[in-house]
Amino acid sequence: MKQLLLGLSSGNPTLSNFVTGSNMEMLQVLRDLLGGRLNERMVYLWGEEGCGKSHLLAACCNEASGAGLKSVHVACSKETGFDIDADFVAVDDVENLGEAGQVALFHLYNRLREKGKVLLASGNAPPLRIGLRPDLATRLGWGLVYQVHALMDDEKREALQSHARARGFDLSVEVVNYLMHHVRRDLPTLVAMLDALDDYSLENRRPITIPLLKEIMEKMKCA
Questions:
Q1: Which of 34, 120, 188, 205 could serve as 90's disulfide partner, Cβ 3.0–4.6 Å?
Q2: Which helix (H) or strand (E) holds 74?
Q3: Which DSSP letter does residue 151 get?
């Protein structure tokens, strides 16, 4: 179930459709960064898996591109390199970088800083606690550092019901509670499952109920 759910899509990420929760200050900083109203051009976001870091980085890249900036969004792995020429670079999950990738990101950071370009990076811990090379960790900590706080359960319920209304249907409290007790509880997974449930409901011309939710979850386990 976990792997299947992670493959589902929850739409085009924007800053407007990010559920703010306790992240209002951080979200305003990103808007100021994109609007050129921030003196600091380097921002680092950290938080637990599923808190929305990837959504934010993708959203910022989308909005930077929409404003005419050349933007690049990189999802890090051990093989990632950084032969990049762009105005706005978003580097996701820096904890996954191998040694060569860390060296390359260090040099990219310096190039972007010298040219007044923007670097937005994310990781699962603050820069100095993530296990990166000391020189890179220090560079990432020079800019603004913000924790992305995960939503509380009540905020997730409200977000799911709001998302359902945006898709044109009402979501009962019973279905929301069942969803939250039987699916991974991070919001991207919950929203993706809700989208799949809505599509399944439309395809089969059946209302969204707990039996329908159980049915699609069973089908996904067998897929």
A1: 120
A2: strand 71-75
A3: P
Q: Which residues contact 42 (CB under 8 A, 6 or more apart)?
A: 109, 112, 113, 118, 119, 120, 121, 140, 142, 143, 144
- Give this prediction's pTM: 0.81
What are the structural domains of the chain? 20-147 (3.40.50.300), 153-222 (1.10.8)
Strand-pair partners of 43: 120, 144
Could you identify the residue written with the tokens 């680092």? 44
Question: C-alpha 143: how far from its chain's center?
Answer: 20
Residue 117: CB atoms within 10 A of its CB come to 19
**CB distance 88 to 71 below 8 Å:** yes
**pLDDT tens column, 156-200:** 998 899 889 989 998 999 999 999 999 888 888 898 899 999 999
